């Protein structure tokens, strides 16, 4: 043989393959490229012809074959060195694959896929194709000049080379196998080793990336699972293993439904979702994020967080962004002034309650110290350094209660702050919320409150997210809630939820022994420590009057009285007597032993009844004259209205005679008993 002919339909391929052959066989034989546009005028008796592919045998070649052409059909492969750039393309990239002919174009696509570059979408193009997408990336097999437009990126993976089996065939046919065998095999061995090294490097790189991913996953404070669309778990981390009390082998490669059967969001692959689940005794907040990849990249990442961790984190954020400085100077049990045994007992109980997180209901009249107790309990609890947030239901307009307590998202209603607002429950997170005058809450709101107490989470108005809250609830009321339940004004289920730890504040009249010590305390407070003993400030009669008074406004009223006395005392510059007392105490003291009937009917009515009794009946005008004579402030019309009331109570009756109005038997009894 004198020549090695490389025959291909296109010139480029013929030349490229000829170069490949020349590199190997050039020392021993002349290598020449031929393409279809050439005259095939070589001497077939002294030539070995390598056909670039089986499909190129056309009539012209068939004639040569029939004449005894010595030929080899080449098998061709893509050189691994050239596909690196292709491997770097993002998954699901779309490329125009350009080659010289339909057959070779499809072959190249098939070979690239076989080589593992199967995550790219190939659009075939070869001369003669009319419709093709103008993609940014074009991949060509040594034929960049055939590209029908200017692509942004052209990757030329070079002409597919003759594979080693074809080359060995050629060597054998040329009688060069002895000479070239070793070279050939070592050349290809080198190539293969190069390829293996590259694969190895890639594998090493993959391993490093994998390790890095594991390190990152294991450093996360949250437990994570990355689950393929078919439910197979492919990534997890240490926190997750610890949470499940399981090892990697029990989780990786397993189906999520087997690992976490009670996770309902694993059924929903359409949207990112949140859910609360209980795993291994932990309440976990689970978030799922759908990964919108392609093919094998699709899946869901689940993160699991212990709800107390979320609370802690949210709390830190809240503290950092809190609207107002949090008051820490709350009352403590030491601030409660008392001597009465009933108070001693109450404080003992309240201190025990302070050690718990259970809901407390404080009932008692106005001004008895309900908020003082609530603050003292908070201060003595483990929440002392956290906020104490008071909410007064009697003072808050009904339409604002929900937004004040639960907050709202930006733009949820007219008048809302654009950025939204945290509610008082969120403000109180970690601490105590004091729901004062709870008996005044509307029935609708009671229902909402009941849900919040049960679920321990709130949702802002206009919001979709449930926010876990960790607050201690102390409620207070001056109303008799049982009576309110009977009247249909208060929900019994809420009452039982609130009344877990009950405290009943005694009124001041039930602990009159505290009047002195409290008076001293308030006087000392207003006088800035100058007056510490009321006995040096007011006389005995005045002190007795303070004891005799009922103090319907309780300690708050006593405090006001002491402030009043201190101001009067500073003016007078002498020891105060009974006349200096506030009018409400004074009135009570002048008539200390008012009869019950007098209390009920009032002084004016009793006066009228007495006059009627003494005069054996008289008219309205006469009563009016008598009132004027006795300096009693009663107008004729007031007398008329009082007589009407007396009539409706069955105390008097009108007569036709000049006696006008006379007492009934009942009226007689009332008048005489008022004189006892
Ligand atoms: N035992 C006490 N020692 C000292 N101060 C007291 C005591 N009890 C109540 N006070 C004071 O009396 C005032 C009223 O108390 P507080 O506001 O706690 O009563 P309350 O029952 O919550 O009243 P309301 O029902 O009207 O809200 C406060 O200034 C409080 O400091």
Automatic annotation (TrEMBL):
The keyword Protein transport does not apply. The keyword Nucleotide-binding applies. InterPro entries: AAA+_ATPase, AAA_lid_NorR, P-loop_NTPase, PAS, PAS-like_dom_sf, Sigma_54_int, Sigma_54_int_dom_ATP-bd_2, Sigma_54_int_dom_CS. Gene3D superfamilies: 1.10.8.60, P-loop containing nucleotide triphosphate hydrolases (3.40.50.300), PAS domain (3.30.450.20), Winged helix-like DNA-binding domain superfamily/Winged helix DNA-binding domain (1.10.10.10). One of its GO terms (biological process) is regulation of DNA-templated transcription. The lineage of its organism: Bacteria, Bacillati, Bacillota, Tissierellia, Tissierellales. Residues 336-567 form the Sigma-54 factor interaction domain. Residues 209-260 form the PAS domain. Keywords: ATP-binding, DNA-binding, Nucleotide-binding, Transcription, Transcription regulation. One of its GO terms (molecular function) is ATP binding. This is Sigma 54-interacting transcriptional regulator. It comes from the Bacteria.
């Amino acid at each position: 043989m004198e020549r090695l002919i490389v025959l291909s339909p296109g010139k480029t391929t013929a030349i490229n393959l000829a170069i490949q052959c020349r590199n190997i066989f050039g020392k021993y034989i002349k290598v020449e490229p031929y393409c279809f546009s050439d005259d095939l005028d070589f001497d077939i008796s002294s030539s070995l012809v390598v056909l670039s592919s089986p499909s190129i045998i056309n009539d012209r070649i068939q004639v040569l074959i029939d004449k005894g052409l010595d030929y080899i059909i080449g098998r061709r492969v893509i050189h691994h060195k050239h596909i690196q750039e292709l491997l770097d393309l993002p998954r699901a990239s779309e490329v125009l694959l350009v080659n010289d002919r339909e057959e070779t174009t499809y072959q190249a696509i098939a070979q690239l896929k076989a080589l593992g570059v199967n995550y790219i979408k190939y659009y075939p193009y070869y001369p003669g194709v009319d419709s093709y997408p103008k993609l940014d990336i074009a991949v060509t097999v040594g034929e960049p000049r055939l590209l029908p437009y200017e692509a942004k990126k052209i990757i030329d993976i070079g002409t597919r080379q003759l594979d080693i089996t074809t080359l060995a065939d050629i060597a054998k046919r040329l009688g060069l196998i002895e000479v070239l065998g070793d070279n050939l095999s070592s050349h290809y061995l080198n190539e293969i080793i190069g390829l293996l090294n590259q694969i190895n490097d890639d594998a090493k790189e993959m391993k490093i990336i994998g390790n890095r991913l594991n390190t990152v996953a294991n450093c996360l404070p949250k437990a994570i699972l990355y689950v393929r669309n078919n439910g197979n778990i492919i990534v997890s981390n240490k926190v997750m293993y610890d949470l499940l009390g399981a090892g990697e082998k029990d989780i990786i490669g397993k189906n999520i439904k087997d690992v976490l059967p009670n996770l309902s969001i694993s059924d929903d692959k359409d949207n990112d979702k949140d859910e609360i689940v209980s795993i291994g005794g932990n309440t976990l907040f689970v978030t799922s994020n759908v990964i919108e990849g392609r093919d094998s990249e699709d899946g869901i990442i689940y993160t699991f967080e212990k709800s107390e961790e979320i609370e802690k984190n949210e709390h830190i954020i809240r503290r950092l962004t809190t609207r107002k400085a949090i008051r820490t100077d709350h009352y403590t049990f030491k601030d409660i002034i008392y001597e009465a045994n009933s108070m001693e007992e109450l404080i003992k109980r309240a201190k025990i309650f302070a050690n718990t997180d259970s809901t407390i209901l404080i009932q008692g009249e106005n001004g008895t110290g309900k908020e003082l107790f609530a603050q003292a309990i908070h201060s003595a609890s483990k929440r002392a350094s956290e906020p104490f947030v008071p909410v007064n239901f009697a003072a808050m307009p009904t339409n604002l209660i929900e937004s004040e307590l639960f907050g709202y998202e930006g733009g949820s209603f007219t008048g809302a702050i654009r950025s939204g607002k945290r509610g008082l429950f969120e403000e109180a997170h970690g601490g105590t919320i004091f729901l004062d005058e709870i008996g005044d809450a509307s029935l609708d709101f009671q229902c909402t409150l009941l849900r919040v107490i049960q679920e321990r989470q709130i949702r802002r108005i206009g919001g979709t997210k449930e926010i876990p809250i960790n607050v201690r609830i102390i409620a207070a009321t001056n109303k008799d809630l049982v009576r309110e339940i009977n009247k249909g004004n208060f929900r019994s289920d809420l009452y039982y939820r609130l009344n877990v730890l009950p405290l009943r504040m005694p009124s001041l009249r039930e602990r009159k022994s505290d009047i002195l010590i409290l008076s001293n305390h308030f006087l000392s407070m207003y006088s800035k420590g100058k007056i510490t003993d009321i006995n040096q400030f007011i006389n005995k009669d005045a002190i007795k009057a303070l004891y005799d008074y009922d103090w319907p406004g309780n300690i708050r009223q006593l405090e006001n009285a002491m402030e009043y006395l201190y101001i009067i005392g500073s003016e007078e510059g002498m020891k105060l007597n009974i006349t200096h007392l506030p009018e409400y105490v004074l009135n009570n003291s002048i008539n200390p032993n008012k009869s019950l009937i007098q209390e009920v009917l009032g002084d004016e009515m009793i006066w009228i009844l007495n006059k009627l009794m003494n005069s054996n009946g008289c008219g309205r005008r006469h009563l009016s004259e008598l009132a004027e004579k006795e300096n009693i402030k009663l107008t004729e019309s007031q007398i008329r209205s009082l007589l009407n009331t007396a009539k409706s109570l069955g105390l008097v009756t009108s007569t036709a005679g000049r006696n006008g109005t006379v007492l009934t038997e009942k009226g007689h009894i009332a008048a005489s008993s008022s004189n006892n």
